Amino acid sequence: MATMDAEGPVHELTAEQCWERIEHEELGRLAFRLVDEVHLVPINYVVQGRSLLFRTASGNKLLAAALHSDVAFEIDWHDDRAAWSVVARGRLRQLEEDEQHRLDDESRQPWVPTLKYDVIELVPEVVTGRTFVLRRPETDSAQ
Amino acid sequence: MATMDAEGPVHELTAEQCWERIEHEELGRLAFRLVDEVHLVPINYVVQGRSLLFRTASGNKLLAAALHSDVAFEIDWHDDRAAWSVVARGRLRQLEEDEQHRLDDESRQPWVPTLKYDVIELVPEVVTGRTFVLRRPETDSAQ
User: Fold this and answer.
1) Name one Pfam family in it (chains A, B) (predicted).
2) d(C-alpha B130, C-alpha B14), whole Å
């Protein structure tokens, strides 16, 4: 039980290794700020080049308000022995109608059935990632 | 490919159902704000009553700065057909030395070996959660 950013056997990932992981996953979490509140929502995304695209219900007030603000996007994975986490930082942009074909061209379709949606793009400015060696001590109570 | 908070087959979880899920998981993500930046880090936590405890490397500057600010904590799960997400909002507090036994009493030990650490408590003020029915259309291109 520790933050995953604790001191210890932690290794930085290269940007290329981060992108490999981002491209491999489909579900991440997006954190953004509205006035004094931090919001955190899961998003289902696709990667195009070096940007992330995701759909949101048309008129989603939360995300509309988050446009043009700095956001953080995160994916992670773990089993009992190891874990990694990748964080991308950047700004959101809503695609114009004549750009939305970018998402329609993708083979992956919406997971949640919904008729009307907006397409949001996140172009990360910074991508960082770390791997962790985990340990679940079995007889550590003598410490 | 859609935000998981899209319109559609979405159902709200009760607070009790949210806590069941929080108690069952061990790894979540914490979003917090430092001046204009939103940070998002994975954390490995334990539940005590209605609060979450997690360790952080002693002197972790990020989290020290986040103390007393509003934060959002999230866990989620999905397979090909369904997903859920639970978000807890509240404030962080660093446990005093004479309180740290609260964590030592827990049977679960640190995942990342580290000698010195601080213990942070998150007492959620609001806990919300939703379940989603997912669908991966196979022949949706005729839309």
Assistant:
1) Pyridox_ox_2
2) 9
